[in-house]
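INFO batch 0412 | record 1 of 1 | parsing
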Amino acid sequence: AAALAGSVNTVSLRDGLLSGSTTDGLGVLMPLRRRIDPKGREVLILGAGGAARAAAFALSHRGAHVTVLARRSEQASAVAQAADCAWGTLDSLHRRAWDVLVNATPVGSWPDSQESPVATALLRPGRVVFDMVYTPIETRLLREAAAAGCTVIDGLEMLVAQAAAQFESWTGLEAPVEAMREGALQELARRGRAA
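INFO prediction complete | emitting tokens
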């Protein structure tokens, strides 16, 4: 899965050998599956970097109909080819139908937290908006999506889900998810970036 997704974020020692894996896909799937089954859903992923690639791979392999949208068509096409999904450019966002939107771009992150990659008019009740940005936790995109009646998922939830999967891989123990989230919140507050 790590080779196909093109990312490794977890290295473990097994039988004297280093083994690389990724929890990036789980970081997207676990929070999303608490709200909605992605199978058969129309999912738009904004961005074409490593996080977008991992999300596209994980969601398309769980039966979602994924479309990757990026500024540059060659990047979107490369991610889509690797993840076996559709692609397009960001300027086509307003013409796309979707159930789930995943922002895998840095738009809206600190210090430019008043930016949003999605026009407010495109946000409709009943949809799910997942913003991978976690500084700030409540981005402009998430505020506007919640106000429009969307279900929202913040980037910290993804980050904690990734870390929990890593913890369990390394230790074989159940991750202390709430303690991990609280620790992350405290660190963001210390840096003044949680709001």
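INFO post-check: The chain has a mean pLDDT of 93.
INFO record closed
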